[in-house]
Design goal:
By secondary structure, this protein is of the alpha/beta class. It is about 35% helix and about 20% strand. Strand 13 and strand 14 form a beta hairpin. The relative contact order is 0.11.
Length: about 350
């Protein structure tokens, strides 16, 4: 019997399992939420998992961080070393990589580009700001999760773009406005709930029908799903909308749309903070792959469970399951240049028109 028989038997399980086992996930943070995420991802057979954390195990971690033991805290072992040891015992098909360092501005881009999705289980705003900024620069989406006291939250920024994390949380919150586990404590059940919510958002993204957000509404009204809750009131879903004045993802498209774009009804917009251009395509990933194969010029591209991306010295094109696309680097110097590049690669009929 197949080890993953029970998830294969759900409705759509074969397709989901196929995407699941080819997904490359970077998990940043191996604490109360991160260890539960890591164990769940490995047990369910995620294809490739990298754990990134430069911290060491402490006594106060043990009540909620499920991969560590007393002897690990006694000698202060590196978290990813212990996590790798425990995850290896689970076995299965997941390829594991352990990196005992923190995410920094000097290593973030390289780590992101080696993965399809980033899962954030960090516990401070600076790390999340770096994650969100790097996501918009590289086109690699991310899912945030966190727990404090008896509360939890998870939010999907996959694909990256707008609204971004700082449309929701101020880039520089007032001192003491956001507590920590050290100041407010945290219950294990809140960590479990946060991890479960983050996994749900990832699975939802992988099962999302192509272009489902364009069927009923304009792409300009793209929203993010936030799951938040506490023990007393349970969990609720909140829809996050774009902040046009956001310093990270505020839109400049209204001042840069050309007459050509107005006449054609094509929708492209430039993101202030990253310099990338965001647009929407009418093609599914199979058709995009087919058209890339037919190009006369040499173009390096890779298809994952989350997107198709092509990378080169001039920049990247990333096409996502839900119809969005992001152009970075020289391809996104102007909105007009981005449109011309897309049309040359995928054809004029590829772009979503209103």
């Amino acid at each position: 019997m197949d080890r993953y028989d029970r998830q294969l038997k759900i409705a759509g399980g074969t397709d989901l399992d196929r995407d699941w086992q080819r997904l490359r996930v970077l998990l940043v943070g191996c604490g109360g939420v991160g260890t539960i995420l890591a164990q769940t991802l490995v047990r369910s057979g995620i294809g490739f998992l990298t754990l990134l954390d430069g911290d060491r195990v402490r006594l106060t971690d043990l009540h909620r961080q499920v991969l560590y033991h007393q002897e690990d805290a006694d000698v202060g072992r590196a978290k990813v070393t212990v996590a790798g040891r425990e995850l290896d015992k689970i076995g299965g098909r997941t390829q594991l990589k352990m990196i005992p360092e923190m995410l920094t501005p000097t290593n973030a881009e390289a780590h992101f580009l080696a993965h399809d999705v980033v899962m954030d289980a960090t516990d401070h705003i600076a790390a999340r700001t770096l994650i969100d900024q790097t996501a918009m620069q590289t086109g690699v989406g991310w899912i945030h999760s966190g727990a404090i006291s008896d509360r939890w939250v998870a939010a999907s920024f996959l694909p990256p773009g707008t609204p971004c994390y700082h449309c929701w949380v101020a880039e520089s919150p007032a001192p003491g406005a956001i507590g920590t586990c050290e100041s407010d404590g945290v219950l294990p059940v809140a960590c479990l709930a946060a991890a479960a919510a983050a996994i749900r958002l990832l699975v939802k993204e992988l099962r999302r029908p192509h272009l489902d957000n364009l069927i009923q509404e304009s792409p300009a009204s793209t929203r993010r799903t936030i799951l938040r809750g506490n023990i007393a009131d349970g969990e609720k879903t909140v829809e996050l909308e774009s902040d046009p004045d956001c310093p990270r993802c505020g839109l400049r498209s209204q001042s840069t749309v050309s007459d050509r774009q107005e006449r054609s009804g094509v929708h492209l917009r430039k993101l202030c903070g990253s310099g990338s251009v965001e647009t929407w395509l009418q093609l599914d990933l199979d058709e995009i792959e087919s058209r890339l194969r037919q190009l006369d010029c040499e173009i390096r591209w890779h298809r994952s469970a989350a997107a198709i991306r092509s990378d080169g010295p001039s920049g990247s094109l990333i096409c996502y399951r839900d119809g969005r696309a992001l152009l970075t680097g020289n391809h996104s110097e102007t909105v007009e240049q981005a449109q011309q590049q897309l049309e040359s690669w995928l054809g004029k009929d590829a772009l979503w028109t209103r």
